[in-house]
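Sanity check record (used in CI):
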Amino acid sequence: MSSSRVLFVGESFTNIGLNLKGFSVYTTGGYEEGGKPLIDALGDAGFEVDYIRNHEVTSRFPAEPEALAAYDAVILSDVGADTFLLHPDTLFKSRIRPNPLASIASYVAGGGGFLMVGGYMSFSGIAGSACYPNTVIADILPVTMMTGDDRIERPEGVRPEPVAEHPALEPVDGRWPTFLGYQRLVARREGEVLLKAGGDPFLVVGRHGKGRTAAFASDCSPHWGTPEFVGWQGYGPFWGRLVGWLAGRS
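Expected output for Glutamine amidotransferase:
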C-alpha cells in the first residue's frame, strides 16, 4: 500500500498557573501536546503525518487550496476557528489575507478528505468559543453544530455503540471503550451515523463535492478520550480505517 499524506492540526496548549502562598503570588507555565496517540496510530497505518501545533498555524498552515492538494486528508482537533481566521496581519494591521478555512472547503470539494475531532476548541466548543458554526466548515461537515456551548460532560462515562456497517468500522472484539464526554451534534440528512452515544451521533461520515468528510464527537486523547480508549487494541485500527476511508483507500 502506497503511503498517504495527512495534515494534522491542533492538540497543543500552553498553560499558565497562578499560585498564592500567604502574601506571596507567583506564576507557573507549561506546554503540552495531546496528539501523539493519534499521530502514532496513523503512522502505524502507513500514513505520513505532518503535524502543525496550534501556535504554528499562522506561520505554517498552507492557506491556499493548491498547497493542501498535497495531502490526502486534513484533520482538525481541538483548534478553534479564530486561530485560522485572525492572522496577526489581519487582526493588527487590517490586511486582507486568504481564508484558510475557505481553502479547506475548496480542497474538500475538489476531492480531499476532512475530519474534525472533538474537544473544547472543536465544533462550537466550550462557551461557543471554537466558533466553527460561523464558518464555511459548517457547510462541509456531515453534521449541524449547536449554537453556544455544545459539550455533554459525562464523568460517569459513556460508551458509543455502532449503529451501521461501514469500512471505517470493521468488527472489533468487545464493546467500545468509555469516554468522559462528547459534543452534541445533529446529523445532516445526507450524513451517515456510524456510532451513537447517549442517543446522540458520535461518529458521522458524509461527502462534500468530490471529497469525504467525518465528524468524531469526542477526543482522540484525554481528557474525554480515556486511557481505556487510548490503550484499546482497536484504537489504531479504527483511526487507520477512518482516515483511510477519507483518503479514498476504501
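The first strand starts at residue 4 and ends at 10. If this sentence no longer matches the regenerated C-alpha cells, the check is flagged for review.
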